[in-house]
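## Example record

The block below lists the input lines for one assembly entry, exactly as stored, with component labels intact.
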Amino acid sequence: LLKKFYNWGLLLKKVSTKKPKIALLATGGTIAGLSKNSNFSYESGVLDIQTLLSCMGELNKVDIYTKQFSNIDSIEIDDKFWLKMLKEIHVLLQADFDAVVITHGTDTMEESAYFLSLCLQSDKSVILVGAMRPYDALSFDGAKNLYSAIVLASHKKTKGVMVVMNDKIFCPRALLKTHSLNVDTFSSLNYGDLGYIVGDQIFFNKIPDHKPAFNLNKAKSLARVDILYAYVNDHNAISARALFQSGTRAIVIGAMGCGNINKNLKQCLKELMKQGLIVVISSRVSMVRVVLSEEDKALGFISSGDLNPQKARILLSLVLSKTKDPKKIQEYFLKY
Ligand code: GLU
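Predicted structure tokens for the full assembly:
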């Protein structure tokens, strides 16, 4: 018992009374959107972060620094934006901030979050948050979501990249936008949620290890990768040929079922692979699990595992800076 008290004593001495220092990077999205009295339509990325923050009253348990990084609809995001955002996050976390909260549009939230989770060179936390309803809508969800993100960012156990929406905490790799309008749009694909937030309390189910795979400190751009969606009637593989002709050398297929593509598309891809095309097979089905035949593996097709096309595209784009060998690329897909 004495030993137990002694350990507690040591622990208490280490506990600092300093408030968590959180940097709030605003990028735009519906959370900063205004409908201007319209019943449905609205503009994303209009309000500034100070106005957004003021709707939450005083936050006296944290020190918050805000930066209007951009104010855009997240559909406009590109790799240059991601590289700049990553750099900014690294500067903030090295400058003694405990965590970064990013307000972001929900349309591409899963892509930005997955990109950051692969490239963040820090064990501190980065929390992405957004809203499905604009600031002046009847049921604006952004205030509660932003509050939850700040609570999550202040928590000592939080590390790596997480997303918080509608009281739930998500892992970027598992995150999936499942509804185009409903506030309960995000789900966890294959793994379950990381936790749940009620007011100031967090109930963690699990906290994954953060394993940054790619150091992009010197990167100026990312390799081009395009996505091709498989569909009925594409028997001339028109889109595949058009992409190759326009310069695409790496492609993710949103195949059918567990990775199926029709004979003509497969034949076309085989020909293009001989000319240098790299092909990752994902699936257009929302709960992705790709299973390739031994024959397809031998041909050089790469399985995305359980990554959906938009996330497989990001991983492939990053991996291409390391290798173009399909076998080695496949190993990355098994690991990340
Ligand atoms: N397209 C907008 C965006 O992603 C609206 C989606 C949202 O934020 O919910 O920024």
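The two ends are 44 Å apart (CA to CA). The chain has ten helices and 14 strands.
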